[in-house]
Amino acid sequence: MVVDDHPIWRDGVARDLAERGFDVVATAGDAASAVRIARAVRPDVVLMDLNLGESTGVEATTMITGSLTGTRVLVLSASGEHDDVLEAVKAGASGYLVKSASAEELVEAVNRTAAGDAVFTAGLAGLVLGEYRRMAATPDEDKPQLTDRETEVLRLVAKGLTARQIANRLVISHRTVENHVQSTLRKLQLHNRVELARYAIEHGLDVEPEGT
Amino acid sequence: MHTEPGRTGPSVTGDPVAHLWRGTVALRIVTFLFALGNAAVHHSTYERPWLAWTVIGVMAAWTVFTSVAYSRENGRRPWVVSADLGLACALMSLSPLIMTDFQFLSNVPLITTIWASGPPVAAGALGGSVAGALSGLVVGLFTYLSRGVLSVDLVRDVVLLSGAGLVVGMASTTARKSAVRLEQALRTEAATAERERLARSIHDGVLQVLARVRKRGLELGGEAAELAELAGEQEIALRSLVAAAPTESTVDGDADLRPGLQLLATPRVQVSTPATQVMLPASTVAELTAVVREALSNVDKHAPGAKAWVLLEDLGAEVVLSVRDDGPGIPEGRLASAEAEGRMGVAKSIRGRVEALRGTLELQTGPGEGTEWEVRVYR
């Protein structure tokens, strides 16, 4: 499923994916219909643009990953939207690819997302590293922390090394590298949910139970 | 819909030292009442009571005039303050005609009394500390000329008068400066908001089309691929441009290191930064940006076609910048030999800049391994 408010881009990406054997089950141009359609068709992967006019892709990501366990969100967005990308990843997106990526990179990223792997660009690794360090500087007690190994792996990703190069350099398996990357994301997302729940309780908001 | 940058936000209007002028007017009125009381007490013993009351009348009229003028922004002008100073000194100089010699000897106040402190205060508010202090000295000089003798009391008055002018002048200068800063801050804020609005609309339209042209063109191949490459370069340049916030520094001279680095992104250079600002002194920001630019141009020179990654990390007490490329790497000894031959090159320039920042520089390279510079600077 492809979500983008710009029809030229949306249809182009959908065609690219269809040509390469993917089954594009739906497209959407705004956050509200993206959530509605995703709940109806339950796609494996949602390609999400973050800049959806009035509404944001971050909200749509939160709602989709919160209510559909089998659906993974891959953010496909412009390179400049640092804060939004970080927020979307915290909200449950399993990866981020810039729109300037090549068709091959896109295909590989969609495949990996469908397989449950995290898709990390160097840019996203830099953002995630920055976020952990920002949290480390706050007095909050149950904030998530990176292990030394995870920090090491993230830094190498941010410096443009591929998973295979990192595995070689650190003398660990390719799978272990993937697991480290995955775990940095999971901790961040878990913390984000705890924070949201705490916020809701503190402010007396009723959280609508969502089917996870 | 279009609004000019710098005019969108709230702006500071009015004279930043208006409160000083209100004080000046209050001082004027209070000191006039004092002079009036003084004349009432002494008028029976004055040599020329009619002249005393004439002077008091002129003072009353002038007090009304300056109160009105100083209360309006367009009345706070150099000529009004100069006339104020001139008139106060002239009226004061009439004191020898009004008062008896005995009154002078027994230190009875001059006819203008402390009313003459008005002009130095007004001059300070208008022109700053120097104007205030000088006006105080002028009034002091006329006090001396009117009394004709130098005494401890007179010197004390002069010191108080120029001191008052000086202090008010300093307050006025400070108030004006902070008003300018506030205005600047508001302008920056408005400009940022405007830039964000532009960035959004550029993102929605131009960038999407450019991205699509690049993608489709590459697939079509041939001449279309060339056009696609051009579109791709412009797409990334435009993205970095709209993503980069204005690099204006804060009041204490700190600036965000990220925008300058983000502008260095190209199709072959990826720049990764935290999502939050990385504030450093503006000069450090400029130097570090130059270091990265240098390292990247070195990649272009020695490993044309190689990709490069720039990573910025903020560790709190220190900031780490890494520049890595996937080129062939620098053969062992080549940096050292280049340095020994006295060729400027990377080594000297980058090392020099980093040393000047009291930072550390690490270089990791080897044939086939690419090159990685790691710069650490401490806060």
Flag low-confidence runs of chain B.
1-11
Shape of chain B: elongated
Q: Got a strand count of chain B?
A: 7
Question: Over all CA atoms, what is the radius of gyration of chain A?
Answer: 17 Å
CATH topology group of the largest domain in chain A: Rossmann fold
Largest interface: A-B, 37 and 45 residues
Give the C-level CATH assignment of the largest domain in chain A. Answer: Alpha Beta
- State the oligomer: heterodimer
How many individual β-strands of chain A? 7
Overall mean pLDDT of chain B stands at 83
* Overall SS class of chain A: alpha/beta
Number of helical stretches of at least 4 residues of chain A: 9
The largest sheet of chain B, given as strand count, sense and whether it forms a barrel, is: 5 strands, mixed
Classify the helix fraction of chain B into a percent range: 55-70%
Strand order of the largest sheet of chain A: 2-1-3-6-7
Give the helices and strands, then pairings.
The complex is a heterodimer of chains A (212) and B (379).
Chain A: E1 2-3, H1 7-19, E2 27-28, H2 31-41, E3 45-48, E4 51-52, E5 55-56, H3 57-67, E6 72-77, H4 82-90, E7 95-98, H5 103-114, H6 122-136, H7 148-158, H8 163-170, H9 174-202
Helix pairs in contact in A: 2-3, 3-4, 4-6, 6-7, 7-9, 8-9
Chain B: H1 18-42, H2 49-71, H3 78-93, H4 95-98, H5 101-105, H6 118-127, H7 129-147, H8 152-220, H9 223-243, E1 254-256, H10 258-262, E2 269-272, E3 279-281, H11 282-302, E4 308-314, E5 318-325, H12 334-340, H13 345-356, E6 360-365, E7 371-378
Parallel strand pairs in B: 2-4
Antiparallel strand pairs in B: 1-3, 4-5, 5-7, 6-7
